[in-house]
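Open question from group meeting: does this chain pack into something compact, or does most of it stay loose? Before anyone orders reagents, we agreed to write out a predicted structure and look at it together. Recording both the input and the output here so the notebook holds the full record.
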Amino acid sequence: MRRCLALASLGRGRVSPNPMVGCVVVRDGVIISEGYHQQFGHNHAERNALFRLDEARGATLYVSLEPCSHHGHTPPCADLVVERGVRRVVCCNDDPNPLVDGGGFRKLEAAGIEVVRHVLEAEGRELNRRFFTFMEKRRPYVILKWAESRDGYMAPSADGGYWISTQRQNRINHRWRTEEAAILVGSGTYLRDHPSLTPRHYLGPSPLPVVLDRRSRLAGVPSHWLHLHSSTVGETLHELYVRRVQSVIVEGGSLVLDAFIASGLYDEVRVLRGSGDLGGGLKAPAIPPVEPGRLIIVEP
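C-alpha cells returned:
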C-alpha cells in the first residue's frame, strides 16, 4: 500500500478534481504490474495497471482508493477488476463521492472478490486531503499564503516595490502553485501589482487565477481569470465549489487574508519569511490557529 501511495503522488497537480490514486497488482508475492492516475479525464490507476497484463487471474490488487462503480470519463474500474479475474482487493480509503460511496466494494463482493479495507487509511487521507475536504465539507481546500519581512511586515509604508522573498523561496512558492487548482487575490492586489499568478519559476500546470472584486471596481480582467463579486468568504468558496475547484491558494492582500482568517474557513498557512526588516508598513497577519502539520514557514 505504501507503494500505491507513492505512485498516487505522481499525479499531484494533474488529476484534480479527481483524487490521486495508485495501484499495484501482486501474484505469488511478486508485483506483476502497477499504475497510477496520471491526468484528469484519462485512465484511472486500476485501468493503467490491469491493461499492462494479459490477465490477472488469482492476483491481489492493492489500490489507494475504492474502485469507482460509475461511468465518468472512463467505464467503472470495479467492472474491469471483476472481468480480469482478480481474487482479492486491498484498499486504503473508501470513496466519499456520492457516485461511488461503497458501490465499488459492493460490486467486487457480489462477484466473490475478497475485499480488505482501511489499510494505511490515515496516510491515504493525508495524501488526498484536498479531495476529502472538497467531498466532505463541500468547499475547496484552502491554503493561506503570504510573504513577510523578518519583523512581520508585508510591504513598506511608502509606495514602491519591495521584494521580500529570495529566489529559492520564489521557486518553492511557484512549485506550490503547480499543486493547487486555483490561486486567489483581492482587487487591491490586482490593481496595485498586476500579478500573473503563474508558476513561471517552476515547471508544471498553472492554477486558475481568481480575483475577488467585492465592490465591482475592476474592468478588463483577462478572460482566462475567474472574476468573482462575492461579498463573504463562504460565498466565494461556494462559487469555487460549484465550479469544481478543489483547492485554492489565497495570496492576499491583507484584507482578503484577514477575512479568511476571521471566517475560520482555511486548512493550511504558509509563510515566506524574509531576511531583512522593514521597520514599519503594512503589517502581516498574525499566524492563526491551525492543525498540527498545517503550518509551513520557509526561511531565507
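Observations to bring back to the group:
The chain has ten helices and 14 strands.
The radius of gyration is 22 Å.
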